[in-house]
Design a protein that fits this description.
The N and C termini lie far apart (43 Å). The chain is 41% helix and 17% strand. Helix 2 (43-53) runs parallel beside helix 4 and helix 8 packs across helix 10 (293-308). With 310 residues, the chain is an alpha/beta fold. It has a domain at 5-169 and 211-240 and 277-291: NAD(P)-binding Rossmann-like Domain (Rossmann fold, 3-Layer(aba) Sandwich). The strands form four sheets. Strands 2-1-3-4-5-10 form a six-stranded parallel beta sheet, with helices on both faces. Strands 11-8-13 form a three-stranded mixed beta sheet. Strands 6-9 form a two-stranded parallel sheet.
């Protein structure tokens, strides 16, 4: 019997990590160390773990994540801990002789005034969005470290995927710390439960966002890994189209089955006016998502009902 290929997934407890783990091909032996087993903020621990298990490839999806509330409230944590994790994972992999690494970036790496759709070459060409600048800087640091390692040593292939915004199973459904879609699911669900007839939207709701179902990202990541050597070193993954914040709120209300009045608080920050990634490279390599917004929202709401509110 052929021995299974060993891959380490860092960040296995997060939404993206759990979706990646769910989609693991049968021929892969996936190691998913959690923070109680391995502290990625400790370089020696990280290096020792990698050297012990000798993976053929590492997926780095670990990080401190959150929505606009959390980023504004904790900029030091988002900058420092995400930078430390990225540096430790990538440098420990390099020092351990692991030749292949897949790093997951974020669309917040792009300039706040970048022309949409956002092309990979736009990274580091303009000012970042202030509401999540710390997180963005940490993600850019890790991507550049990967690129510099490739530049200095052609035996190593450290690549970065930049996903668009994500939602789906295993997300955090908090109105204060979560990304938009799970936070809105919680908000409208609770409005329905309490009979509240109005829900607040930050800003005018006209800002546009691209949210992809996390299960689609996970499936495309494994397809990318299967053809790793032929894939671009830096590549967006997304839908190629977007919706307004108002449209997301209305779709979620429709899925939940509660027609509610939306009130806009124009005093609140809204972030970038649009954040749509260019998926030209993704199309060229034949990767595409399957879930439409309504279908993905239904799957996510069912997960919320079955887990979060029990």
């Amino acid at each position: 019997m052929q021995q299974a290929e060993t891959i380490i997934l860092f960040g296995a407890s997060g939404m993206v990590g759990q979706n990646i783990a769910d989609a693991t091909p049968k021929h892969i032996r996936l190691l998913t160390p959690l923070s109680k087993e391995l502290n990625l903020l400790d370089f020696e621990q990280t290096k020792n773990y990698i050297q012990k298990h000798k993976p053929s490839l590492i997926i780095h999806s670990a990080g401190i994540v959150g929505g606009i509330h959390a980023n504004i409230a904790n900029p030091v944590k988002f900058l420092l801990e995400n930078t430390d994790m990225g540096r430790n994972v990538v440098w420990a992999a390099y020092k351990s002789g692991v030749k292949k690494l897949l790093n997951l970036g974020s669309s917040c790496m792009y300039p706040r005034n970048g022309q949409n759709p956002l092309k990979e070459e736009y990274v580091l060409t303009g000012e970042l969005e202030p509401t999540n600048e710390g997180y963005a800087i940490a993600k850019i640091f890790t991507q550049r470290l990967c690129a510099f390692i490739n530049q200095e040593n052609s035996d190593f292939s450290y690549k970065t995927i930049i996903p668009c915004n994500l939602y789906g199973k295993y997300d955090k459904f908090s109105t204060k710390e979560s990304h938009m879609i799970p936070a809105v699911i919680r908000k409208i669900h609770e409005a329905k439960k309490s009979g509240k007839n109005a829900v607040e939207i930050w800003g005018d709701g006209k800002a546009r966002r691209e949210f992809m179902y996390a299960g689609d990202l996970a499936r495309m990541i494994w397809e990318y890994i299967a053809r790793f050597d032929q894939m671009p070193d830096l590549m967006n993954m997304g839908l190629g189209y977007d919706y307004t914040i108002n449209e997301y709120y209305q779709t979620i209300a429709d899925v939940i089955g509660y027609q509610v009045t939306f009130k806009h608080d124009l005093s609140k920050p809204v972030g970038m006016k649009q954040k749509l990634v260019d998926i030209t490279k993704q199309k060229q390599v034949g990767l595409k998502p399957h879930f439409m917004l309504k279908q993905g929202t239904e799957e996510t709401y069912n997960y919320f009902l079955n887990t979060e509110i029990k």
